[in-house]
Amino acid sequence: AGGTQRVAMKKQKQKQSKGEPKAGPEKESHTCCGCRFPLLFAFLQLALGTSVTALGFLMAGVSSSLPARDTPYWAGILVCVVSLVGFVMLCVSYQPDEKTCLQFTAKLMYFILSALALVACVLAVAFAAHHYVQMSRFTCITILDSCHCKLDTEDPLSRSFIYQDVTDCGSLTSMLNLYLPLQMGLNLMAALVCLSACFVVWKHRYQVFYVGVRFYPLTATKGQQQKV
């Protein structure tokens, strides 16, 4: 009789241990190294924004008459600001369903600024592509300290472009032919990163897309439901 009671008590303990959640490392958060939201996007945005800004200022130094649309440092600065907001989000403690006002505000600002940066980068790509296509049809001559370029030399009414503070048209066109494709590539990558960031924020908010959030085993939830 004593042996059967011991066997019955062991079976009861085994059932209880199966129903209860396991304590220890299973309750700890499982995060992908370097993939915690929005760390990866913030680093990419900072790197691309810095590159776009630096290249934009370099292009502005080629000629003082280049308009702001052809030196898109403004797009790079906006992407850098978005990355800084992403780093601020990392400092805010996570609460499910945005229970804190600070977390909701930071996430909303990050989403809006990412959308604005996406539009700015797309505009920068369009302006750079338009200028690059025009340069392939330019005929340039150097006059004093400026470079005069025309789309059609036979047409007297054809539009002309004047680049100030330039002593050699050949060096100007070669540098712009290098800088403009780089601007297109960098701004295109920045636009894709900002688009991905907007998608992940929307998915995280409305379709429960968690990145780097704590996960509990299925047995733990079943055990808690049985207790209730």
UniProtKB/TrEMBL annotation:
| Subcellular location, record wording | Membrane
Q: What is its main location?
A: membrane
Q: Where is this region: Disordered?
A: 1-29
Q: Which UniProt keywords apply?
A: Membrane, Transmembrane, Transmembrane helix
Transmembrane residues, as ranges? Answer: 37-61, 73-96, 108-129, 184-202
Q: Does the keyword Cytoplasm apply?
A: no
Provide an example Pfam family for this protein.
CD20
Q: Where is the composition biased (Basic and acidic residues)?
A: 17-29
Name this polypeptide is given = SSPN protein
InterPro entries named in the record: CD20-like, Sarcospan
Q: GO cellular component terms?
A: dystrophin-associated glycoprotein complex; sarcolemma
Q: What is the lineage of its organism?
A: Eukaryota, Metazoa, Chordata, Craniata, Vertebrata
Topology relative to the membrane: Multi-pass membrane protein
